[in-house]
Amino acid sequence: MERVHTLMDSPYGELTLVATDGVLSGLYMTDQRHRPAQETFGDRDESPFGEAISQMEAYFAEELTEFDLELRLDGTPFQRRVWDELLRIPYGETRTYGELAEVLGRPGASRAVGLANGKNPISVIVPCHRVVGANGSLTGYGGGLDRKQRLLAFESRTAVAADALF
């Protein structure tokens, strides 16, 4: 198993992209909670990240609302189910932890959903920032609540602007 990483700038600070055997397996913000140790990211090598960087740049330029990348999401079966559901949350929308738990057939598992959400290894692309508390509050975000608020405002504004075009 070969792991490599690269860095990219973003409006939310420097991002670390990690690939395992050539497939994107991590996208971490600086000071992100549950961020693995830097030494686990492997050597710096930009070669497997061209498409991921291109799509991230298009996202930040408000030109892309849905990513089309091969992802390697390593986690428990429950975590992977939660992360798969995160990928179904449309750009510019949010879901509550309870709503995700319902969709997963585990209506009492909103806390477990929250824990899995917090361990998401591929920020932004797997949109864990789109999950909010039952009353719409911005509860927890591995990248920090300020970044979560900024990402949601960015997507909301972009989605509203796109709706105005049609």
TrEMBL record:
GO molecular function, one term: methylated-DNA-[protein]-cysteine S-methyltransferase activity
Protein's GO biological process: DNA alkylation repair; methylation
Catalytic activity: a 4-O-methyl-thymidine in DNA + L-cysteinyl-[protein] = a thymidine in DNA + S-methyl-L-cysteinyl-[protein]; a 6-O-methyl-2'-deoxyguanosine in DNA + L-cysteinyl-[protein] = S-methyl-L-cysteinyl-[protein] + a 2'-deoxyguanosine in DNA
Active site (catalytic residues): 128
Main location: cytoplasm
A Pfam family recorded for this sequence: DNA_binding_1
Gene3D superfamilies the UniProt entry points to: Methylated DNA-protein cysteine methyltransferase domain, Winged helix-like DNA-binding domain superfamily/Winged helix DNA-binding domain
Domain Methylguanine DNA methyltransferase ribonuclease-like intervals: 5-73
Domain Methylated-DNA-[protein]-cysteine S-methyltransferase DNA binding, residue spans: 77-156
Coiled-coil features, chain-numbered ranges: none
EC number(s) from the headed UniProt entry: 2.1.1.63
Subcellular localization, as worded in the UniProt entry: Cytoplasm
First-tier enzyme category under EC: transferase
Entry-linked SUPFAM superfamilies: Methylated DNA-protein cysteine methyltransferase domain (SSF53155), Methylated DNA-protein cysteine methyltransferase, C-terminal domain (SSF46767)
Family under the similarity heading: Belongs to the MGMT family.
Name listed for the protein in its UniProt record: Methylated-DNA--protein-cysteine methyltransferase
Native source organism of the sequence: Streptomyces alfalfae
